[in-house]
Amino acid sequence: CDRNRGARVDAVARRDFYRIAGKDGRLSKREFLSDEARRFADADRNRNGVLVKNELAVFAARRASLLRSEA
Hints:
Blueprint: H1 2-21, H2 29-43, H3 53-70
Helix pairs in contact: 2-3
């Protein structure tokens, strides 16, 4: 249904984009990439710049959890 799709898109936008955009309501490429880099670094437990299987599983689970909580 288009209504459900619209609600999901809005939830993702609120979670991922509006928060990063801040008070000015604009999301720059730099702001977006900086936030993604932070999420990656949080998942990279051994700080080697690569997500291995167990780190990737945790990273994916966190992303999925965020999606479910906003749906």
